Amino acid sequence: MYCVQTSELSHNFSAQATVLKTINLQVPMGSIYGFLGPNGAGKTTTLRLILGLLKKQQGNIAVFGKSFEKNRVAILKNTGSLIESPSFYGHLTATENLVLLQKIYQCQKSRIQEVLHLVGLTATGNKRAGQFSLGMKQRLGIAVALLHSPALLILDEPTNGLDPNGIIEIRQLLTKLNQEHGITILLSSHLLAEIEKLVSHVGVINNGTMMFQGTLDELKDQQQKSSATVFETSDTMQTMQIIRNNNLVPELAEGKVSIPVVSKDTIAKIIQQLVNNGVEVYEATTIKNDLEAIFMDLINK
Amino acid sequence: MTNSFIHGFQSEWLKKKRSLASWLVIAGGFFTPLAIIIARLIHYEQLAVLYAKEGFWNQLWQSSWKSMAIFLLPVGVILSASLITQLEYKNNTWKQLHTLPLDLTSIFFSKLLVIIVMMIQFFILFNIGIYLSALIPYLLVSGVPYPKAPIPFEAMLKEDGFYFIDCLPIIALQYLLSLRYKNFLVAVGIGFGLWIASISALSWKFGYLIPYTYCPLNFLKAQNGDRVATPGINIHVMALGYFTVISIVSYIMYLSKKEKG
Fold it and tell me: In chain B, is it the N or the C terminus that has fewer CB atoms within a 10 Å radius of its CB?
């Protein structure tokens, strides 16, 4: 069963502009799902639809296997969220902000100090939240999302405004919450590098269309597939023939011959055959696309 | 549903701590009594005669409500009701509020109830203020007797009740406007416009149709003169009717909002 599942979810803010096109998001139970895409891709709109902040126009949304529309309150009881900038009352202290939420969630009062400790905000005392730094505000937003020990966390760009140390701390915190408490985490980001150490599953969205969805390993497989060994020689046609003789499929681009990544032994063997056939080898390089390049490739399709 | 409403109300009540709306209630409640105390201390030589009069409490009541009914109460309600929802816009917290496990009915009515309870709080403070405006000059100026006439509690409570009912349409309409418009100035601007229109329409025979006229009309009903047209109907019933209708419209508009933060 998926923790969050959308089927054929579409949305538009005006008749001309469709923001989301038949999105089928599938967040497995217990996973950390990274929802990636450039700014304006439709990430926040999707998350707002999942949380009921936008009126659904087309498609279905199920959370914990139940329809969101019919089980809104029950689902929100087990869901913590942080959408865009953190939400809190600037004229109240961090503790006061959490107290007014504790009244609604009816969770233990001790949770307030626990979550403040978790996000490192125990020493804020009587300081009003409006006077917090951007990083502290972000931490308070995360504390708000964690207060009632939810089974699902939906975080929209949770590391915005945090310094490198803060990003690492939040990453460790989210990993801990996922591993020790089994919390499913759906988080969005426009930076793959920022979340690739954290997530188990990835969804890539661009212009309202899902470009990729799968495990991080599947994305890495794609990385492997898109890496290549490139040969620059004096005779491209003969080079291609020699490569074909080795049961490989060469491609010609910009005067260079490329093949999918092969072992060092195979490269050495091909070079030797090229030299033996009088072909001069100027360069033999293996280009490894990193995940960021794959991501860029996906969103530029 | 009931629990959800109670928890929602508790949370809403905590939110207004240190907010401008809560300070406004306190300042509004004591503003007129303070002005009366200062005026009486300036003219302290007249106090002995004034305090000995039979109709002392009635006169104090009338002078306290004069500026309150016509000016301070409508303006205070316009500002307070608008400021309560402004808390959510200003802090960008509508999205948080709407992702809490509260049904939308509880959210809508708990906020409305907070505004109403704040008004009750204001009435209590204002009545305490009226009493203090009688007591403090008596304590500070020697030779001033404590008013002989008994405090007309029943009449005061009845009048408080009428004023409270009369300001309910303002609460409902300002709440509707402030839910509808993100910009605080729109709700307050329309509110002030309607209040000015209501003052201008007091002598018009259909002036009572403007829902902001009831507080001044209630005060001026005892005054004989051409300043006010006597409505042919019960204005308090009209006020309750307006409050109910506007609240229902506001509730439907709130539920049908496409974006909730």
Answer: N
Task: Report whether A62 contacts A5 (CB < 8 A).
Answer: yes
What tokens were used for A291? 């995940």
A53/A74 Cα distance (integer angstroms): 16
User: What CA–CA distance (Å, rounded) separates B127 from A226?
Assistant: 79
Residues, chain B:
261
The shortest CB-CB distance from B14 to any of A88, A103, A105 is to: A103
What are the structural domain ranges in chain A? 2-221, 228-289
Is the minimum CB–CB distance between B261 and chain A shorter than 8 Å? yes
Read off the DSSP letter of residue B98.
T
Q: What separation in angstroms does the CA of A143 have from each of A35, A119, A166? A: 21, 6, 14
**Per-domain residue ranges for chain B?**
2-255
CB distance B13 to B115 below 8 Å: no
Sequence-separated (6 or more) residues with CB below 8 Å from residue B166: B214, B215, B217, B218, B235, B236, B239
Q: Do residues A137 and A86 lie in contact, with contact meaning Cβ atoms separated by under 8 Å?
A: yes
The contacts of residue B199 (CB under 8 Å, 6+ apart) are: B70, B216
Tell me, which fold does domain A2-221 have in CATH? Rossmann fold (3.40.50)
Q: Indicate the range of A105-109, A139-143, B118-122, B225-229 predicted with least confidence.
A: B225-229
Bridge partners of A230, per DSSP, are A258, A285
DSSP state for residue B72 in the 8-state scheme? I
Question: What is the percent of chain B where pLDDT is above 90?
Answer: 86
User: For residue range A164-197, what is the model confidence (pLDDT) as tens digits?
Assistant: 888 888 899 899 999 999 999 999 998 888 788 8
Q: Which of A49, A52, A59 is nearest to A10 (CA)?
A: A59
d(CA A78, CA B188): 38
Written as six digits, the tokens of B25 are 């209630």
Contact assignment for B99 to A77 by CB distance below 8 Å: no
pLDDT band at B225 (very low <50, low <70, confident <90, very high): low
Provide the CATH number for the domain formed by A228-289 in this structure.
3.30.70
Neighbours of A65 (CB within 10 A): 12
Find, among A158, A147, A177, A134, the residue nearest to A47 by Cα.
A158
Q: What predicted TM-score, i.e. pTM, was given to this entire model?
A: 0.87
Both structure tokens of B116: 């109403």
CA distance B138 to B14: 38
| Residues of chain A contacting B96 with CB distance shorter than 8 Å | 87-88, 144
Do A73 and B98 count as a contact with CB atoms less than 8 A apart?
Answer: no
Q: Which residue, B182, B157, B168, is CA-closest to B235?
A: B168
* Contact criterion met (CB below 8 Å) for A145 and A83: no
C-alpha A115/C-alpha B96 separation (Å) is 17
- A97 contact B CB<8A: no
Instruction: Write phi, then psi, for A228 (nearest 5 degrees).
Output: -150, 155
What the block records as the tokens of A263 is 């072992």
